[in-house]
Each structure stands twice: as C-alpha cells, then as structure tokens.
Specification:
The chain is α/β, with parallel strands linked by helices. Helices cover 29% and strands 14% of the residues. It has helices at residues 31-43, 65-77, 102-107, 119-129, 148-159; strands spanning 2-3, 9-10, 19-23, 47-50, 81-86, 111-114, 133-135. It has a five-stranded parallel β-sheet, sandwiched between helices. Strands 1-2 form a two-stranded antiparallel sheet. The two termini are 26 Å apart.
C-alpha cells in the first residue's frame, strides 16, 4: 500500500496467483464478455472469480440492489481478493454506492476497476476511503471492442509500477482538446 501527498491510497500491484473478483454492480454483462475477461486475467496468471450474482437480471439491472451490493461488499470484505473488477457499466451502480462497506475498504484497501456507470462507485470509494481506482478495463459487454493495446495497458496498470501515459484517441468523438499543453498529476474522473 502506498500513499501520495494528497492521502490517496494506491493498492499493491497485482502479481501472478492473486485472486480478483468480477462483480456486476450495474447492468448484466454477456457471458461471452465475462469469459473474455476471465481468459485475459488468467493469461496474466491471476485467479479470477465471479460474484454470485454476476449474471442476474432484474429489469435493466444485474439483479436486485441487495444482491449487487452483497457481491460488491463480499469482494471488499474478502481479505484474499486483491482487486475488484466490474463486468460492465450500464445503470444501477448509483443505487448501491452509498451502502458500500467503506470501513472494510479502509481497513484492507483494494483496487477497483470499472467504467461508465461505475464512476459513482469509484468516486464513493475515493471520497470515503481515498482509494485510487482505474476507470476503464477489459470491455466485457462487447469483447470485440477490447483492443489489444488497451488490454496491455491495463495489465501494466495492474501488475507493474510503470508510469502510464494517456493519449487521446482521435477516433473518439470527444477526443478534441479545448486547450493545449501537457499536465502531470492525479487524475480524478470517470464517465
């Protein structure tokens, strides 16, 4: 565990043999997408596990609020789980973010990886625990969108202490900058 001058908690880098838990705090992922994530994580030597309710469906949600929250809190409370990875974004994470087990996360900080709707979980963990997270990850809702260079960058973020440079993707409609220059520092953001 490391801290910076702002008090942000950075989890230890992952290493082969570490357990990581996939959870669905928002919408239901595809089985193909989750299988893709599991395959990639195993190729890095990690031991991925699925939360009990990963594939549940309740309207547009990946199960009832209580079940999605239980999966996330189980992962937070399990001392053997070194990172938590959201299977997809969508909708619903905002409904459970305020009920996360922040006490357990502060006691045993671990990395959270999510994107889209998971921004609210990332920000809640930062607000209450100062835990750094990764916004992005292996695209499990559409495995065809998972670019090899993005997957390799995620591996480096999770498993090395290498510096990471972010570059705009000109194919993205929001890639145009409104200013020029460069910056160094802590990036707090999300969707």
């Amino acid at each position: 565990m490391a801290h910076n001058t702002l008090g942000t908690v950075f989890s230890a880098r992952l290493k082969p043999g570490d357990r990581v838990r996939l959870v669905s705090p928002a919408s239901t992922p595809t089985k193909e997408g989750v299988e893709h994530c599991v395959t990639v994580l195993k190729s890095w030597g990690l031991k991925p596990e699925l939360g009990k309710h990963v594939f549940d469906k309740y309207g547009y949600l990946a199960g009832k609020d209580s079940d999605r929250l239980a999966d996330l809190n189980d992962a937070i409370r399990d001392p053997g789980v070194k990172a938590i990875i959201a299977t997809r974004g969508g909708k619903g994470a905002y409904r459970i973010a305020g009920d996360l087990d922040f006490t357990s996360m502060r006691a045993r900080p671990k990395l959270y990886v999510g994107f889209s709707e998971n921004t609210i979980i990332e920000l809640a963990l930062y607000k209450h625990c100062h835990v750094a997270s990764i916004h992005g990850g292996i695209v499990s809702w559409n495995a065809q969108e998972a670019k090899p260079e993005s997957i390799e960058q995620l591996r480096r973020m999770l498993m090395t202490i290498d510096s990471i440079e972010l570059h705009k993707d000109l194919s993205e409609p929001t890639a145009a900058l409104t200013t020029s220059g460069s910056a160094t520092g802590i990036l707090i953001g999300g969707n």
